[in-house]
C-alpha cells in the first residue's frame, strides 16, 4: 500500500505529461528527473500523506535512490511512529 500511495505523490511532484511510469525500481534523479526542489516537495508531501515527521531522517532519505527504497523506508518510519 505504501508503494501505491508514494507513486501517486511522486506523480504529483513530477507532474509532466512526459513523465515515465513510476515503478519500484524508478530512480529519482536518473529516471524521474528529480531536482533538489522536487526532493523537498516530495518530503513535505510524504510527511503530510503519511502523518510522519521526517526531519530527523534527512541524512538517510537523501541516500535513497529508488522509489521502492523510499517506500520501504517510509513503511519502517511509520511503523516506528505508532
Automatic annotation (TrEMBL):
Annotated source species: Steroidobacter gossypii
Protein name as it appears in the record: Acyl carrier protein
Signal sequence annotation: none
Domain Carrier: 1-78
Classification via InterPro entries: ACP-like_sf, PP-bd_ACP, Ppantetheine_attach_site
Coiled-coil region list: none
Lineage: Bacteria, Pseudomonadati, Pseudomonadota, Gammaproteobacteria, Steroidobacterales
Keyword DNA-binding: no
Superkingdom of origin organism: Bacteria
Keywords, in A-Z order: Phosphopantetheine, Phosphoprotein
Matches recorded under Gene3D superfamilies: ACP-like
Amino acid at each position: 500500500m505504501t508503494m501505491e500511495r508514494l507513486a501517486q505523490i511522486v506523480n504529483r511532484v513530477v507532474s509532466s505529461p512526459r513523465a515515465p511510469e513510476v515503478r519500484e525500481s524508478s530512480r529519482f534523479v536518473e529516471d524521474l528527473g528529480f531536482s533538489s526542489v522536487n526532493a523537498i516537495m516530495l518530503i513535505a508531501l510524504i510527511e503530510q500523506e503519511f502523518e510522519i515527521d521526517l526531519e530527523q531522517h534527512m541524512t538517510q532519505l537523501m541516500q535513497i535512490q529508488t522509489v521502492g527504497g523510499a517506500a520501504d523506508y517510509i513503511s519502517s518510519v511509520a511503523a516506528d511512529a505508532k
